[in-house]
Design brief:
Order of helices and strands of chain B: HHEEHHHHHHHHHHHHHHHHHHHHHHHHH
Strand content of chain B: under 5%
Strand order of the largest sheet of chain B: 1-2
Shape of chain B: globular
Radius of gyration of chain A: 21 Å
Oligomer: heterodimer
Structural class of chain A: mainly alpha
Radius of gyration of chain B: 30 Å
Largest interface: A-B, 56 and 48 residues
Distance between the termini of chain B: 84 Å
Strand content of chain A: under 5%
Number of helices of chain A: 21
Number of strands of chain B: 2
Helix content of chain A: over 70%
Largest sheet of chain A: 2 strands, antiparallel
Number of strands of chain A: 2
Helix content of chain B: 55-70%
Shape of chain A: globular
Strand order of the largest sheet of chain A: 1-2
Amino acid sequence: MLSAFVFIPLIGALVILVLLRSSLLIRSFALLTSLVHLLLAISIFVIFQQQHSGSTDPVMVEKLGWIKSAIPSFPAEYFLGLDGLSAPLVLLCGLLGFISVCASWRIEKRVKLYFVLILVLLTAVSGVFVALDLVLFFIFWELELIPMYLLIALWGTGRAHYSAMKFLIFTAFGSAFLFVGIMLFFVSFGTFSMVEELDMSLLVVPAQLIFYILLVGFVIKLPIWPLHTWLPDAHTDAPTPISVLLAGILLKMGGYGILRINIGLFPDAAKAASSFFFIIGVIGILYGAMIVLRQTDLKRLIAYSSVSHMGFVMLGISAMGSDSMDAALHGLTGSAMQMFTHGTITGLLFFMVGVIYDRTHTRHIPDLKGLSHQIPVASVGLVIAGLASLGLPMTSGFVSELLVFLGVFNAWGFLAVLPILGIVITAGYILWMIQRILFGESLARYNTIADTDFAEFLPMMLLIVAIMVIGIYPAILTDVFKVEFLSLLNGLF
Amino acid sequence: MISQILAWAIFFLPLSAFLIISLVIRPFVEPRFPSARKASGAITISALLISFVLSVWIMTTIEDSSYLDWDVFSWITLGSFNLTIGILLDPLTSVMLIVVTGVSLLVQLYSYEYMKDDQGFSRYFSFMALFTSAMLGLVLARNIVQMFVFWELVGLSSYLLIGFWFFKPSAAAAAKKAFLITRLGDVGFLIGILYLASQGDTLVQAVAAEGLEGVKKFNPLDIVHLNAFAGEFPKFLAAGLVTQGIFTWVALGLFAGAAGKSAQFPLHTWLPDAMEGPTPVSALIHAATMVAAGVFLVARLFPVFETSVLSMNVIALVGAFTAVFAASMGMVMNDIKRVLAYSTVSQLGYMVLALGIGVPAVAMFHLFTHAFFKALLFLGAGSVSHAAGTYDMRQMGGLRKVMPVTYATFMIGSLSLVGVFPLAGFWSKDEILATALNQSGLVGVVVVACAFAAVLMTAFYTTRVIILTFHGEFRGRQGSESHLSANKAQDSHAQDVHLAESPFLMVLPLIILSIPAVTAGFLANPINDTWGLGIIPAHWFSHLLHGHTVKFSMTAASISTLLALIGIGFSYLRYAKSSRVQKKDADEGLVYRVLSNKYYMDWLYEDVVTVGLFYRKICTILYWIDRFIIDGLVTLTGWLVKSCSPVIVRVQNGQLQTYGTGISLGILGLVIAYRVLGL
């Protein structure tokens, strides 16, 4: 089932590449493929909830000899599996994949190549979240780069080539560290499996060193301050559906890598590094939020807000420095929740910005005003996304921030007031943006624009429902995440 | 005996009204049948009517305390930490339920007429229903995080309603300001919760060691448990299980949240601007209910606050200062709603002051009476503007002749506000003043001085409003453009001058509200059985809330009545001749300028700190750093690699000698490293 989930987009891409010509057919088939992908993701999540039964062993495991069967001394396997950390991200991946394909409906330029690339991209990111073998993980991780590069460079706007190259070089730079880290791991333990018991005394280098080497690879993707400058450029110049994917899933690969590999495999080193996580998290949250205030381009604004929100992922991890296991549990669960919620919320934000851009052909905030008269439905979507982004209760954003703060306050005491002040700045830039583009008297030149059509309304509602359901009943996700972290922390405290 | 389902229904009925209007009527029904919008109002009103009836029922059966053992549901469970949801029904809740559902019901009736020509009729009622359910959720909450959730949702609906006429830039700005300033207070609330949660283990261990009466499974975030713990605080303190100051940060943090919502200095600046919303919104949210949430929060967790002397003193001083500070600004405002807004801030200051000097039941009593007479005043102001076409009192005058009912009811509300015997405001304010007189120490002196000074000012500005609005000759120009005329098309209420009494549906709530504005004082909390007319026992309200009974103080009553008379007289002398009103602001001198500029606090907060320092300086500098230093380093790295490549490329020149040299040097280096450095 997991293999089907991973490879169905790829098969869809091949079918489009070989068989289909008419652009309508290509679009419809891509949409169908991503819908199947979404349905698979949902069923995988549901089945997982029934199967996992509180144990941390991965379920739905699929294992093939792969390289190991040819070269026994290089034991890389085809090893897929699902556990509490990956199951929600699989769901996120299916959801945002479908939504970004929906949002791509109006792409006119080189339709075939576009949809082939986006489907290949989906296979790559799906693979990252279910691979339990480091080599396989790395292959999926790298596979995502090329389609992303091309999608930004060929369909982007503005300095698309520059931004695409910047994205590529930054990520490849991180990948180099990741590669070294994986090799050190192999040399030490003689395995690539992420789920085996590790004997830390076998490490050929200090645990802290391998921890930080791997971390560099992941945090660039997250991204953290000061390695974030590729993100605003990539987001601004990428076509909107790609921004949805980039913010919604690709950034989560970094966070997932940290939680799965750094924290999961080296919890002691992670605990020792908690001050690093705290400092970087706080800087990210405040610095990102303050820079958002200066932005006049809607996409750049949301991009910097992502930098700020990803700071919460780092901040939550810093709760591992607490003496109380509960606090660490809150922090880690909050981090994981923040990845999921940020995926849906920022996905919706970018999606709504795309809807507005399609109609007004501008993202420059001073050129927009009073839009809520002309496009009331889209405005409601943007307002809900904004309110979720500023962490309003009953939306998922509140739950993850609350959990992170619960953990961090326990671990760091009144130092935690610093990031909490960030929520005021966040409220400031979100409400200011809403006020500037939606409220006030409307402009005559936008009198003819139409409100959302069904193809836009459906994904919008899907994301709103996802945001609200988790906001109202967060146990759907927290109960899944916590199983994983509980066993991890039990070994640590 | 009321069942748990019915208690939840009080909350869910308005919520369902919101959902039905926004998910069914607005998207599907209204586009086809425009007259269906009337249904939105009807649905909201009937939902609130049922909620009100249920609330009254609760009020009559509340003495039975078995409600406290109702089940709780788990919302998030992580480790030993359990976030629960449940209903807390006690006398305090029941009082708030009556205030919220009762005032909301009357305000919706009024709105049905007031908003009838507005494009956003359905949207208005959906937001009002959302607000009422959020407020009821806040009041009923049993867990402190649950309370915070609704606390924020109340803030959201306030944001939506202040910005209801979002096409007015001033309304959009006021909505944002209200949300941000209250959120600043909410940071304090959140820190209070987080601090409490971080002390959770200590509290749980203390309970495990010493036991706590009536609490089975102690949850530090459960309000009932927390109050029980704080109630037996000396026991835990004596056993050395907790420190004296364990709740100080909790109390101060929660009070910061309360100060934001209840518009206490220095977080009061949002409330006067919030008057940009429709007038019934001001009556419900910014006079009677939401702004009272802060007072309710402190009263709800009063045992916790009581353990910290420091926070009690802070609360008393903030309340006392706000009472006089806001009243002083109310004296010079020309917009009738802004006068009422400052008056609200000032009266909230009284309630907070009462909390600070240790009498939460008295604070709740004042909250109770204030809710009625202030809602009455706001609805009266709406009725006035319906006729005069403006809120600017300089454009009014002489309205008593054309709108007698509005005049009479507004007069009742005003006298109640001033505290004239025997109206509602007199009794509740007297209890506050009497308690304040008994305070000792420096804090006591300051509190008493502020409280009595505010009485004088209240009398002054209230009389000024009455004279400018209802007496003298009408000063507005018939058919002239009012200050709101820019939005004529949408804002149908504030444009035409038609000097006549308002329609029946608007006048009816005024009449109904003026009944409690007269009687809520001596009937709810009579000083003896005689005043209760033999129906209501003496000090019924205080007993209901298990508060101390405050003996009626003739001293306090005499001083305050005297001060009120002085204020009225001074105001009368100053404004009775209408020529005075036309006087230019600029002639009025320094004090007037400072007051009418609100002590320059808006300027300080917005222009100096937020825009001038934070936005223009800090954020700009950071963005510059981001672009030119951090991203500059990235570009520099790229440039370095690019510039080095021509040099390095030469090394790879295809000549074996060069490679041989390189290899030899490399081996040499390794040997040296091995030999000399001993690696």
